[in-house]
Amino acid sequence: MQKNAFNNELKNRVYVFYQHSDLALTIENAKDIVADDFKNEDDIYIVDTEFQWTYVNTHESFSGPYFYKKS
């Protein structure tokens, strides 16, 4: 369900943050990224540049991933 919500979201430009790193990325033309692109990443946060939605892939195998969209 959460993966589908992320996959179906319009993605033009996104920010990618890693929780345990100083690394942050900007992905331009992100329309083709999907949840499975991040399935091997732990504690990663993907947000649109307006911070209207967030997708989180956690390190816990029993929890997540999560998708939240501001209403």
Task: Describe what you observe in this structure.
This protein is mainly beta and 71 residues long. Strands 2-1-3-4-5 form a five-stranded antiparallel beta sheet, with helices on one face. The model has no long low-confidence stretch (mean pLDDT 94). The protein has one helix and five strands, in the order αβββββ. Helices cover 10% and strands 32% of the residues. The chain has one helix spanning 2-8, and strands at 14-18, 24-27, 44-48, 53-57, 66-69. It is globular.
Shape: globular
Mean pLDDT: 94
CA gyration radius, whole angstroms? 11 Å
Count of helical segments? 1
Please give the oligomerization state of what you see. Answer: single chain
Distance between the termini: 18 Å
Counting DSSP E segments of at least 2 residues, the number of strands comes to: 5
Structural class: mainly beta
What share of residues is helical?
Answer: under 10%
Order of helices and strands: HEEEEE
Which stretches are low in confidence, meaning pLDDT under 50 for 5 or more residues running? none
Largest sheet: 5 strands, antiparallel
- Biggest sheet, spatial arrangement of strands: 2-1-3-4-5
- Give the amount of beta strand, in percent: 25-35%
Task: Give the helices and strands, then pairings.
Layout: H1 2-8, E1 14-18, E2 24-27, E3 44-48, E4 53-57, E5 66-69
Antiparallel strand pairs: 1-2, 1-3, 3-4, 4-5
